[in-house]
Predict the 3D structure of the following.
Amino acid sequence: SGESRIEMAQNAKNALENVNAKILGVVLTKLNKNSGGSYYHKYSHYYYYE
């Protein structure tokens, strides 16, 4: 569909927030811990991987 995995995850998060769902956590599979980083946004700490 042309979306990256990160965009797909962000869209899923936004869809859940739009219906006031409480996100307790996420499960990441096949993750290469050496290809990512982290950043802060508002009051949350996000990790990203490429």
Summary: The two ends are 18 Å apart (CA to CA). The chain is about 30% helix and 25% strand. The beta strands are 36-41, 44-49.
